[in-house]
Amino acid sequence: MKKxxxxxxxxxxxxxxxxxxxxxxxxxxxxxxxNIKSVPExxxxxxxxxxxxxxxxxxDYFLENPLDASKFYKFIKxxxxxxxxxxxxxxxxxxIACFYDDEVRCWNIIISVKNSTIExxxxxxxxxxxxxxxxxxxxxxxxxxxxNRRYNQIVLLLGDINISEETxxxxxxxxxxxxxxxxxxxxxxxxxxxxxKSFVYKLKDFQFFKDLGIxxxxxxxxxxxxxxxxxxxxxxxxxxxxxNHYKLISNDFGWAxxxxxxxxxxxxxxxxxxxxxDSNFDGRCNLSVHQxxxxxxxxxxxxxxxxxxxIDFNLFTGNSNSVISKLINNDSCYKTIKEEGFDGYSIxxxxxxxKLEYNEKGFFKLKIDFEKMINQQxxxxxxxxxxxxxxxxxxxxxxIKCFSKNNSEFQLIGSVSxxxxxxxxxxxxxxx
Length: 432
Known about the structure:
Elements: H1 2-22, E1 46-49, H2 51-64, H3 66-78, H4 83-87, E2 96-101, E3 106-112, H5 116-122, E4 127-129, E5 132-138, E6 141-148, E7 153-160, H6 165-177, H7 186-194, E8 199-204, H8 207-210, E9 214-223, E10 227-236, E11 247-251, E12 256-261, H9 264-267, E13 284-292, E14 311-318, H10 322-328, E15 335-339, E16 344-348, E17 356-361, E18 364-369, H11 370-374, H12 381-392, E19 395-404, E20 409-418, H13 428-431
Antiparallel strand pairs: 1-2, 1-8, 2-3, 3-7, 4-5, 5-6, 6-7, 8-9, 9-10, 10-20, 11-17, 12-13, 12-18, 13-14, 14-16, 15-16, 18-19, 19-20
Helix pairs in contact: 2-3
C-alpha cells in the first residue's frame, strides 16, 4: 500500500518539475494530442497534463509581474536547470500523458520532443537496448527511458526496482512500435479536451485503493495564482473505511483538525488492533493538534498509542471510552472528559480550553491552519526550522472535505490557499 502511494508521488514530482520549465520555451499553435492518443485503448489509470492552460496562466502572471519572471529564471540558472532544455528539447505545446501498465506494473510518462533520436542520445546514460536507457534508481523505483522514433516521443518508465528490465523493454517496444493513434483512448482524449483544469486523472484497481474500499477515482487538480484546488469523485464498495451516519464534529483546540466517521472495517484493521476497541464505539472521532514535539523524530511515530510522545492533542471518540482507556495507560499527564451533548469522551495531554461543534454529515473533514502553526511559539530548534520552510511556502491553509454523492459514490473537494495573495503560491518556495 505504501509503495503504491509513493510511486504516484514520484510520478507527480517528475511532472511538476516539467511544469516549472514549460513557460520558458517556445510554444507552437498546433496541437495534435499525440501523447494523449498514445494512452492505450481501455486503459483506466492515467494522468494528463494540460500544458496550454498552465503555460497561459504563467504567461499572464509573468507579463504582469516581470520581476518575478527574472527571479525564477535566476533560480533555474543558479541550479543549472536551464541545461535541462539543452538535453531534452520538449515540445511543450503537446499535453503530457502518463498511464499505468498493469501487466508490468510500470508508469509510462510520454513527452513530445523535437527529435527523439537526438534527445535520447543527449541523456547521460548508456544504452542497454536499442532506443532504451536506464537512468537511475530512486528509492526502490527504477527509471528507464525509451525512444519512440515514430512520433518523436520520449517515454519515461517508472516502476518497481524488482521488475524485469527485459520485460519492460519488450512490452514498451512492442506497444509503441505498433501504436495506432487512430485507435486512441477516446475517454482520456475527450476528458482532456473538455477540461479547463491543469491536471485531469483517472485511477483504478490499485491495491492500496482496494484496501480503503475504493474502486476508482476520477478528478482534476487546478493550479491557480493564489490556490491549488482538488476535485475528485470515487466509487466505493462495502469495504469503504468511512460512513456518513453521523454529523462530523469540529474542535478549535489546535491548528490541525481531523474529523471522521470510521466504518467497522477500518476499526478491525491492524492499525487499531492493539486498542481492543469495543462494540460501543460508533466510529465518530476528532483529532485536534495543538503542537508537535520531538519534531526530528516524527518518523518514529508508528501507531496511535504513541501519539502523546510526539503530539499535544485532543482526541474525541464517540460513545465509548475504550480507545481513551487504552491510550491513558495510567499516565497522569492525560485529562479525560465525558462530553455532554456529544455522547462521547475526550482525552488530552495538554491543558487548553476548547470547544466542540457539530457540522454537516460527511465521511471526513480536514483542516490545517498553517498561519496559526507558523505563529506558534516553540522551543525546539527542529520545529522552528520546520516552520521556516512552511513560511517560505506561502500556504495559508489546507482544507479537505469528503462526503457522499450517492450510495456507491463519494466526492472530495480540497484546496490549498495562499497566505500572501500578492505572491504566486507555486513560485513562492523558489523565488521569495
